[in-house]
Amino acid sequence: MASSKLFGIACFRSESSRDLSPRPHYPSMPKYPKGVSVQGDMEGSEVRKALFSVTGMTCSACAGSVEKAIKRLPGINNAAVDVLNNRAQVLFYPSFVNEDTIQETIEDVGFEAKLINEEVKEGSILRCRIRIRGMTCTSCSTAVESALQALPGVQEALVALATEEAEVRYDPKITSPNQIVQAVDDSGFAGILISTGEDRSKIQLKLDGVRTDKSMRMIESSLQALPGIEDIDIDPVLHKVSLSYKPYQTGPRNFIEVIQSTGSGRYNATIFPEGSGREPLRQEEIKQYYKSFLWSSVFTIPVFLTSMVFMYIPGIMHALDTKVVRMLTVGELLRWILSTPVQFIIGRRFYTGAYKALRHGSANMDVLIALGTNAAYFYSVYTVMRAATSEKFKGTDFFETSSMLISFILLGKYLEVLAKGKTSEAIAKLMDLAPETATLLTLDSEGNVINEEEIDSRLIQRNDVIKVTPGGKVASDGFVIWGQSHVNESMITGEARPVAKRKGDSVIGGTLNENGVLHVQATRVGSESALSQIVRLVESAQMAKAPVQKFADRISKFFVPLVIILSFATWLAWFLAGKLNAYPKSWIPSSMDSFQLALQFGISVMVIACPCALGLATPTAVMVGTGVGASQGVLIKGGQALESAHKVNCIVFDKTGTLTMGKPVVVSTRLLKNYVLRDFYELVAAAEVNSEHPLAKAIVEYAKKFGDENDGHVWPEVSDFVSITGHGVRAMVQSKQIIVGNKSLMLDSGIPVSVEAEDILVETEEMAQTGILVAINSELVGVIAISDPLKPGAQDVISILKSMKVKSIVVTGDNWGTAKAIANEVGIETVVAEAKPEDKAEKVKELQMSGLTVAMVGDGINDSPALVAADVGMAIGAGTDIAIEAADIVLMRSNLEDVITAIDLSRKTFDRIRLNYVWALGYNCLGIPIAAGVLFPSTGFRLPPWVAGAAMAASSVSVVCCSLLLKYYKRPKRLDTLQIRGIVVE
């Protein structure tokens, strides 16, 4: 984080200086186009400055890729990208490049860019999430998305039909979350704000004992005075207080104490009952559709019986055929009375949805249902009215068509929301990991426990000490301050074996304590916790649209209007054919005339075509796929990553921490001079203890074995310490100059490397070990061999990838000898060694240029440029900062076999998406002609409108159920045997 801040300062350090950064991050690109002379065309040209808002960057690697892409353009003088403020500042020559080209270049890298005026004060772009109720198909989601994107200050809006949520990036200086919610409401749907995305926590408290407005104002004033309070919203009707606060300054227990103190004990506050989450709303929607279907059935079943069953029972048939007024019968009147509430009260939702859609110039499923049912209902009203005013007219009503159509569609929607609720079970399961209560400890100044209290886990504040008993769940992220135990972290990291924990070790909220009592000091609470970040990551993944979904979005724009045209054309064709006697009169059922037959065909076409199935084909499969991935320890960041992963045919592996364990150990020491080994390691460890390099840590850990059996070993004092990146360290220890590093560092320091030392280095490299040279007072005295053991099953993983026709490559910063030895051991033929982070990214680009779809597998830190450059970046390992990784896929268990799981899952998910599209499109392509009556002339088969409506409802349910089958995904069986072998080996 510190480096990112320094980078941000360097980017915008001076308005007056044209040199935007002290040193380019990448090899300098030519500032002038080819063939242009500086003195001729460019000298004296005006240099223009442009400031762009760039959204989507998550780390310095993203900023680096944007900066690099801009600098490659002709006519760029300089460029700097500030990841902290989401800004790119570019100096360019307008004769050769313009703002639009620069903006397109940024967007080609994969980020959203907008040119902004320099006068606009820099401010961070915020993100808010909104739940949207009332959407039925992709036409609805497209209409809401358009309305949001048209709002001033909104940089990006993404609306997901499957989750019924919107994610909006906005400039808080121009618009606010309330205005965004209002825009959703104005577009004809109900919007509920879930989160504002600002860096603050939120909590809702229910007030007890407060009865007057004066008391409310007094409580509000008391809370407002607390440090760290950002915003307060009071609902006097529900006696609810919503607070936004900075968790590092205050917390919910402070709020409750202040409320109790304000009323001298008369007032109390508790956590407001959960009711704003996705699941309660889903349950409410399910309940509404169920109730609507039941009421609809109460009225529809008698309509169905009177029109299709009782007409065959002589006694009842005569009673129903009794005339009421002229030719109007009791049966017709009953059907009219019973179907009217279904059409206008129970079916009101379709009228409302159709009106809202048409008002905004779009057409959705509600429009089709409203048109179809109205055509049947009002034609039936016409026949009833005519019968009541005529002595001879005998017509047929279609009341059963409209009422049964609405009933079947409500049943379909009920089954659909029931099934859709199951697609997001992964998030519910993750959220259930957090325990409901926690035991809060009060400690005295000496660290002794003086009080224990059970509290709601949502009331935990930073630096609280929590007691975790055997069998209990860890309530918050933190570190152990007392006790030792084994903690099962499989629910978060996927690691099957319990991890030993003792004083100083970190723990993750939601994990299970197996044995022993732990006292844990909370460090990350609420939205900061690892569990919350994982939940947010999965939610964001389920929000993001896969590129393949654009296909459905394009179709949905003209789908409904096309269906209406086809429906009208069907009715007109059959009507004219009847009038012109183009078919025999015997084709017309005895109870109908040619107009009624044509009308039934037209209505059937209108209601059988379902845009919902197309709209749900991709998002439901992506939701289930990402959810299954999370349960398997593979976090896939959205549809884009999922779609790219199934095309991968080349994987670039980092070596350290990816193919190997990432924990180097000293395996041997060869002294070239007479030295006591303990004294030798005392000097070397003193120099290396200041380095963060994994090899340095391995040396320090090994050196501790020569010391006393205590934790606090004190190394000799060090002066003039210098770390040379990629080479080693230099320092003065006990008046001796110590140089520890590779061969090139020795040669650069003027220290000759003997033949004996050369032979030792060659020998270590052949054994896949890294040789570290040690010089004391400019004399080479020893070689330390360090090995980083291969991960169990690495060879099998590479072998399985080969069988999946995926090419594997090793790209590492380590030396050639070690890299080749490791590659040979695992079975990889292509090796790139001694590569810097930018070299790794260049290699990825080179592979992409050759036509390969490339995945990069690395540890997500020094590999971040390559992770960003790859089609799919896979980060090995996970931590509390998981949500801000540069990768597209995070392999939480740090197991290499999860690379195969990720690719296999993405392939299975996209097979399911293809199947959904085949079904949705095939259903419409097959259903519309049948509904239009193509089989009627040859077979006499026709599809009544209510059957067509039932088929339409069933199509959406079938697509969702098809996606839900992904829940039963099992990773390749070969991986299970591989894991067993891995455990046996250890």
TrEMBL record:
- Keywords on record: ATP-binding, Copper, Ion transport, Membrane, Metal-binding, Nucleotide-binding, Repeat, Translocase, Transmembrane, Transmembrane helix, Transport
Please tell me one Gene Ontology term that the record gives under cellular component: membrane
Give the matching SUPFAM superfamilies: Calcium ATPase, transduction domain A, Calcium ATPase, transmembrane domain M, HAD-like, HMA, heavy metal-associated domain
Q: Which Pfam families does the protein's record reference? A: E1-E2_ATPase, HMA, Hydrolase
UniProt domain HMA: residue ranges: 48-114, 126-192, 201-267
Q: Can you say where in the cell this protein is located?
A: Membrane
| InterPro entries given in the database record | ATPase_P-typ_cyto_dom_N (IPR023299), ATPase_P-typ_P_site (IPR018303), ATPase_P-typ_TM_dom_sf (IPR023298), ATPase_P-typ_transduc_dom_A_sf (IPR008250), ATPase_P-type_domA (IPR059000), HAD-like_sf (IPR036412), HAD_sf (IPR023214), Heavy-metal-associated_CS (IPR017969)
What NCBIfam families does this protein's entry cite? ATPase-IB_hvy, ATPase_P-type, copper ion binding protein
This protein is called what?
P-type Cu(+) transporter
User: What organism is recorded for this protein?
Assistant: Aristolochia fimbriata
